[in-house]
Structures are given as structure tokens and as C-alpha cells.
Design brief:
heterodimer, A: mainly alpha, 3 helical TM bundles of succinate and fumarate reductases, 4 helices, B: alpha+beta, 8 helices, 30% helix, elongated
Chain lengths: 115, 236
């Protein structure tokens, strides 16, 4: 294969936009959870569990986790793109990152499911 | 006329003579008529004619005397001597290969500049008079057309340091927006296609070193933001 600089992958915009949208969702989640928790008296295991088991919190927490995973994917991939130049090693790191993130997503979903 | 002695530390490297670069301590007498750093550099050159640096217009128009001054990129001809803490440390622009002393190889920088097709693309037959714009349309070019391609911005950008072969850099992107924003240009869509890439445009992480150092007071980050806005507008 010729050693030519190849660019033009045509996917930059989608990820840039996704990173911003997911950041807004995560910021809103953090703010809302902080406000709701500050309003709770005697925060213990039972009240914490009841708080997280509500329909709204289950929906919003899952949304938060999806946004976090997506946001992390774009950010970590950017780091690999900047610092790891051999294509094979970079592809391997991309795949490992994706697999780990999918695993984390499943794990988070199973925790939320059990509540 | 009052004179004073100024202390300098200058990056020296001559690949024909030196194994590796070193910093040279050197002082020079400057008088009250020496207003800018370039005046001192010219006197330094008279004292030690082996010091190599680029300069031409000496008034901030040609952009050839861009150097790293006390850790910050700038034009020697626009930098006031009286404001500089001593010893004044002069290094070549970071991130580009050094040819000799303060002279860097700008090939990569200009390759990126050429990659954005820095000329008007309009396939209509030229009119008898010039292609007209309204004052409002022309206003959009203010703050972007003034770039002198000194490379202060691109060589202060960490994203350009890591990927100079793939990331266009702030100077090139500012120029890209100059033609995207030009109502006389007909290649807007092709220009956006050319930049829609995780490296070419989206390596910009809004660090804004470019805005901080631009000797002409331009804002490449704002221009990059406008290119992204246009891409979003086109996509949704």
C-alpha cells in the first residue's frame, strides 16, 4: 500500500454534534439529580433506592448512561487518533474501547432493571 | 539618545555545523529609537552575522518574522521592546522542522493552506465589470481576509502539532471560511465536503491559542465555529 496521507472520512460533524448534545443531557441530569437529592431528608439506602426506582429517574438515568457512553466513545477515540499512529494498533484500541463501553452499557442497564 | 543593554537567549541550530540545537546567551546595545524586537534582531545580526532569521516588510504585513518570543508566538516587527521581560528568549515557531536558527520549514503549513483551495471558484463567465457584493455581504469577509499567513496561530495549536499532515490548522480554516463566506464563490458545498472529516476540521477542540497569539487580532476559532454551523445547517 502506498504511504499516502488519506483524509475525508466524512463523519466528523455527526460526532462533534453528538458530543455537544450528550454533554447537555449529562449536565441537565447532574443538575436535576443534585436538586432532587438536596431536597431529600434522611438520605439512606432505602430512600436512595426508592428515589432511583421511580419511573422518571429510571428513564433519565438510562438516558444519562447512554449519553455518557457515547460521549466517552467520541472523546477516547479522539485520544487514540491523536496519540496512536499505527493503523492496526489504533483499530484494535477502537474495537477494545467499543467493546468495553457496550459492556458497561449492558451492566448499567441490568442494574437499573433490578431496581 | 539613551542606550541600554538587552539580554537575549537565542535558539541556535545549524545542521551543517551543530550536532544538536543549543541556546546562545547574547546581549546587544539598543537605543531609544529601537522600538520593536526586529530592530534588536537586526542589531544582533550586525553583532553576530551567523544568526539566521526571516524578515521583510518590518511592519506586520508580510508575516515572515514570526518567532516564539518568551514562549509566545508573535511577529518580531510588531512586538514592543520595552514590554519584553529579559532575558528575551527567542525560539523558532514550534512544531515545524527547523532549517536553521529561527528559520522554520513552512512546507506543511502551506500544503494545508493550498488544500482548502484559497481562491474564488465561480464558473459563470466574468461580467464586464466586477462581481458585485452588497455592503452586508462584504462585511462578512472582515476579520477573515486580513490573515497574512505568518503561521503564529497554527504553530501554537496543539492539534496542529499532533496532526500537521491531516489537520488544516487555524490559518487554513480561517481562509477556508473566507471563501465559504464569499457570496461570489460557487463551491460552498464542495468546500464543506472537503472539510467534513474528523481530522481536517474536527481536530479543533476550541483551545483558542490561535486567537490568543494572532498578531492581526483575528479570530480563527469563530470562523471555525461558523464553518461547523454551516455544516449543521446543511445536514439537518
Amino acid at each position: 500500500m502506498v504511504n499516502k496521507i488519506v483524509v475525508g472520512a466524512h463523519y466528523g460533524l455527526k460526532d462533534w454534534l453528538a458530543q455537544r448534545v450528550t454533554a447537555v443531557v449529562m449536565a441537565a441530569y447532574t443538575l436535576i439529580v443534585a436538586i432532587l437529592l438536596l431536597g431529600q431528608e434522611n438520605l439512606g439506602y432505602a430512600s436512595w433506592r426508592a428515589f432511583m426506582a421511580g419511573g422518571f429517574m429510571r428513564f433519565f438515568t438510562f438516558l444519562f448512561v447512554v449519553c455518557l457512553i457515547w460521549h466517552v466513545w467520541v472523546g477516547v477515540r479522539d485520544i487514540w487518533m491523536d496519540y496512536v499512529t499505527p493503523t492496526g494498533m489504533r483499530l484494535a484500541l477502537h474495537v477494545l474501547t467499543l467493546l468495553a463501553l457496550v459492556g458497561y452499557l449492558g451492566w448499567a442497564a441490568s442494574i437499573l432493571w433490578r431496581l | 539618545m539613551t542606550t541600554r543593554t538587552m539580554q537575549f537567549k537565542i535558539y541556535r541550530y545549524d545542521p551543517d555545523r551543530d550536532d544538536k540545537p543549543y541556546m546562545q546567551d547574547i546581549s546587544v546595545e539598543v537605543d531609544s529609537t529601537d522600538r520593536k524586537l526586529l530592530d534588536a534582531l537586526v542589531k544582533l545580526k550586525a553583532k553576530d552575522d551567523t544568526i539566521a532569521f526571516r524578515r521583510s516588510c518590518r511592519e506586520g504585513v508580510c508575516g515572515s518574522d514570526a518567532v516564539n518570543i518568551n514562549g509566545r508566538n508573535g511577529l518580531a516587527c510588531l512586538t514592543d521592546l520595552k514590554d519584553l521581560p529579559e532575558p528575551v528568549t527567542l525560539r523558532p515557531l514550534p512544531g515545524l522542522p527547523v532549517i536553521r536558527d529561527l528559520i522554520v520549514d513552512m512546507t506543511q503549513f502551506f500544503k494545508q493552506y493550498h488544500s482548502i483551495k484559497p481562491y474564488l471558484i465561480n464558473n459563470d463567465p466574468p461580467p464586464e465589470t466586477e462581481r458585485l457584493q452588497s455592503p452586508e455581504e462584504r462585511d462578512e469577509l472582515n476579520g477573515v481576509y486580513e490573515c497574512i499567513l505568518c503561521a503564529c496561530c497554527s504553530t501554537s495549536c496543539p492539534s496542529f502539532w499532533w496532526n500537521p499532515d491531516k489537520f488544516v490548522g487555524p490559518a487554513g480554516l480561517l481562509q477556508a471560511y473566507r471563501f465559504i463566506a464569499d457570496t461570489r464563490d460557487q463551491a460552498t458545498s464542495e468546500r464543506l465536503d472537503n472539510l467534513e472529516d474528523p481530522y481536517r476540521l474536527f481536530r479543533c477542540h476550541t483551545i483558542m491559542n490561535c486567537v490568543d497569539v494572532c498578531p492581526k487580532g483575528l479570530n480563527p476559532t469563530r470562523a471555525i465555529g461558523k464553518i461547523k454551523d454551516m455544516m449543521v445547517k446543511r445536514a439537518i
